[in-house]
Structure formats: C-alpha cells, structure tokens
Amino acid sequence: MSASMAEYLKQDMECEGLLECIHGLKELDKEVFRTLTATEEPLTIDEIAESVDRERSTAYRSVQRLLQSGFIQKEQVNYEQGGYYHVYHPTDPEEIADEMQRTLNDWYAKMGQLIGEFRQKYESEITSAGERG
Fold first, then answer.
1. Measured between alpha carbons, how far is 103 from 123 in angstroms, rounded to an integer?
2. In angstroms, what CA-CA distances link 100 with 27, 29, 39, 76, 110?
3. φ, ψ for residue 74, nearest 5 deg
4. What is the mean pLDDT of residues 33-42?
5. What three-state secondary structure class fits 2?
6. 3-state class of 54 per DSSP?
7. What is the rounded distance in angstroms from the CA atom of residue 76 to the CA atom of residue 8?
8. Given its phi and psi angles, is residue 85 left (phi above 0), alpha (psi -120 to 50 degrees) or beta?
9. Over the stretch 59-84, which tens digit does the pLDDT of each residue have?
C-alpha cells in the first residue's frame, strides 16, 4: 500500500528516499548505485552482480532501471582483437539533482492544475446546491 503525500511529508526523508520517491527505485537499485559510486573505475555487469551478491540477470535488470532513470551511464569498451563489452559508472550528481528538480517542478505544476480543477468543480456544485436550497 502506498503512502499518501501527507504521510511522506511527515516522515524524516533522507537523500536516498528521493531515489525511491521520485524514481521508484528498489532497494537493489539503490545498492547497485551505491556500489558504482563507491568505486573509482566503471564496473561490468559481472562485477556489479558479484558486488551486490546477486545473479547476473538480476543485476542487469537493476542496471537497466538505473540507466532509464539517468542515474548511471553505459560505455562500450572495445577489445583489440574485436568485440566489445559494456561498463557502467554513476552520472554526475549535479545532473541527477537537476533532473529530480525538473521532475518535482513538473509534478508541482500538475498538482496545482488538479487543485484548480477541484476548486472549480466543487465550488460550482456547492454554489448550485445553495441556489436550489
């Protein structure tokens, strides 16, 4: 069951609460993100899976969610004899924070619009009911 916005505002929010609240990231996603931010070098899926003690496919799904939300970046590394593999590293925190701010601003604007529609609808219904009574 999801919490209401009023309940969220009463909680002591932490930085990582934003990852869950704004982007819907799971605990494993946060663990993968922390792993990537704690290393100086980009990691492969196999290295990430080993670090978080999960199967490769599970780690891959988490990495895909982080890529989609913009928290990490993917780079292709080419072998000299042909072929390639991918490594992953965290996105610059400033970029992530800016994107979260844009998302929050969009949400705020949408909520303002919905509140205005609510006000119009029920204000006119109450006025109409008062005229009939």
1. 30
2. 18, 17, 23, 27, 15
3. -115, 135
4. 94
5. coil
6. coil
7. 39
8. beta
9. 999 999 999 989 999 999 999 999 99
